[in-house]
Amino acid sequence: MNKGSKYFLTGFIIGGILAMITMVSILKIESFFGNSISVWSSTIGVICLSIILGLVYGTVRVSKNKYLIDMKRLVIIASFFVLIFPIISPSAISLFIDVPLGVGAALSLATILAPILFCLSSTIPLMVNILGMHQTVNEGTISAFLLSSILSGALVFSYLTVFILLPKLGISMSVFLALAMLFLVYVLLIVDYNIRNLGPVALLGFCFVFFGFILEKENRDNKIIYESDGLLGNIKVVDQSAEIFGQSEEVGRALFVDNSLQNFIDHSGNSMWHWSHLLPTIIGTKPQGSKTLLFGLGAGSLYNQIKSLNHDIDVVEKDQRIWNLAKEYFNFPMDEDVIIADARQYLNTCKERYDVICFDLFEGDSPPNNLYTREGIQQAATSLKPDGIIVINYFGFLEGDKGYAARSIIKTIVDLGLKINVIPTVGSEDSRNLMLVISNDIYVNYNQSFFYDPAKKPFKAWAKLLHPIESIDLNSATIITDENASMKLFSSLPSEAWRKAYNEIFATDFLK
Questions:
Q1: Cα torsion angle, 301, 302, 304, 305, sign
Q2: Are 302 and 331 contacting, i.e. CB atoms less than 8 angstroms apart?
Q3: pLDDT band at 323 (very low <50, low <70, confident <90, very high)
Q4: Looking at residue 231, what is its pLDDT?
Q5: Mean pLDDT to the nearest integer, 341-362
Q6: Three-class SS of residue 438?
Q7: Region class of 233: left (phi > 0), else alpha (psi between -120 and 50), else beta
Q8: How many CB atoms lie within 10 A of CB 447?
């Protein structure tokens, strides 16, 4: 293999490792710090700064004229940090879990990811100069050649990591594969196969054995009966005590997305959430035979409640894994079809007209920001029958900065000329949900709901449940459009509040 091919392959593998470790680290911290705009800004900042510092350091080392030796050392150091990744990542996250989420994410990444990015990006200027000594072309051409190889590796392994490695192997085995690729870089592409290099090769071999021991002894909470990582986050199915709902110690089954509790089903198959009784009661104002569109499958409990109304239901779920889990662990009917699609995409292409459109969507602790814009709500309204309703399950905050997002959605709905009822569930703002019920030109008669759950008391005194629109300060709110793209920013404060609450309850168990 000539020098050009050798270092193109080296660059390709290094680019692949950079992509793999970055994706794994982001998914790891996102499970605990969420995906709010402050977390993403911090994440991008740490990644860029680590690579910049690595390139600067590599450029400085070029002047020492020890290109190959420096590359060997950097690969060994990077291998060490990859090796200890599964050991230090829970500790790093635990250490910073109580600081502001954006800061905590940055500090966690600085601990578990930045050293690896620094070492590997430092090798790039060194490879340019090694090739420059053996090639007749100028350094600009060599740099472009190496950059293309690194970006090619990053592109290929980004897709492999997200769509194949993480869903099939999980985080630990994906990191193990990155360690194997570093071993390949050292042994096949850098080592000169003389006696002086046997020590580092033996050290990397020991890393494999030690990492295998880590995987074998990995401490997993035995309540977790299923776990999967992927592009749409970490998913867990957990057998969990109902004490968190103020109930008995009886164990039920919980669905978590990025460690945010999405639903909790008791032994009878009923959801423990207060909104899980209120929501089907609202939907039940439409008689049997009604056509209902449900966005968000979750554990399937809401689907089963709507099905008891004898509605004709279309379910749209973004993550194929959720559908599989609902069937395997939560008694969702095996023969029922689910449409795997993005909610906004489905609305844009939908030809059906519905009596009810229900948005029961949270991506971990964040709502889908592209749905609750003026254009998104208008598109949903055009998919309604004349007397149809839209129901949105949203954060419980209405006042102050945390309530800005909900007030802005309400103001956007009012600006569209649509009718809206705001129905909070019981409890304080930080522990409740808001049901936003939207219609084209008539208000809903909640006293005529066909939904009945023998285990729950029926809702009465609806006049007291409805939150008066005139009491909501819409002057301190913004009409949300696709153009201003502000929903991500507005929802960051309530998202972070929910994330902190979930971390206080569940983070300790999941970081064991």
A1: positive
A2: no
A3: very high
A4: 73
A5: 91
A6: strand
A7: left
A8: 12
Task: Name the phi and psi angles at 138, rounded to 5.
Answer: -80, 170
Q: How far apart are CA 403 and CA 375, in angstroms?
A: 21
Give the architecture-level CATH label for domain 3-217. Answer: Up-down Bundle (1.20)
Spatial CA neighbour of 63 closest among 146, 124, 117, 129: 129
Calpha distance 272→291 (Å, rounded):
26
Helices 101-112/37-62 angle, 10° precision = 30
Nearest to 176 by CA among 26, 17, 10: 17
pLDDT tens digits for range 195-211 = 455 455 555 555 555 55
Residue keyed to tokens 């995906």: 35
Distance separating alpha carbons of residues 185 and 387, to the nearest angstrom: 65
Quick one: three-class SS letters along 377-413?
HHHHHHCEEEEEEEEEEEECCCCCCCCHHHHHHHHHH
Where exactly are the structural domains of the chain?
A: 3-217, 273-495
pLDDT at 243: 67
Q: Specify the pLDDT at position 136.
A: 55
Q: What's the length of the chain? A: 512
Q: What are the CA-CA distances from residue 485 to residues 268, 373, 482 (Å)? A: 42, 8, 5
Q: Is the pLDDT of residue 249 over 80?
A: no
Higher confidence at residue 490 or residue 435?
A: 435
Does residue 512 register a pLDDT over 70?
A: no
Rounded Cα distance, 242 and 240, in Å: 6
Most distant CA pair in the chain, distance: 85
Tokens of 462: 């609806």
Distance CA 395, CA 360 (A): 11
DSSP 94-136: HHHTTS-HHHHHHHHHHHHTHHHHHHHHHHHHHHHHHHHTT-S
273-495 is classed CATH 3.40.1190.20: no
Mean pLDDT, rounded, for 490-506 = 81
Asked whether the predicted pLDDT for residue 223 surpasses 80, the reply is no
Condensed to tens digits (0 to 9), the pLDDT of residues 251-279 reads 788 888 888 888 888 776 777 777 788 99
Asked if 7 and 127 touch (Cβ cutoff 8 Å), the reply is: yes
Amino acid letter, residue 238: V
pTM of the model as a whole:
0.81
Query: CB count, 10 Å around CB of 3?
Result: 12
Total Cβ atoms within 10 A of residue 66: 13
DSSP state letter for 308: T
Give the per-residue SS3 of 464-489. Answer: HHCECHHHCCHHHCCCCCCCCCCHHH
> Under a CB-based contact definition with an 8 Å cutoff, are residues 285 and 346 in contact?
no
CB 307 within 8 A of CB 329: no
pLDDT band, very low/low/confident/very high, at 49 (cuts 50, 70, 90): very high
Residue 242's pLDDT band (boundaries 50, 70, 90)? low
The answer to whether 183 and 79 are in contact (CB under 8 A) is yes
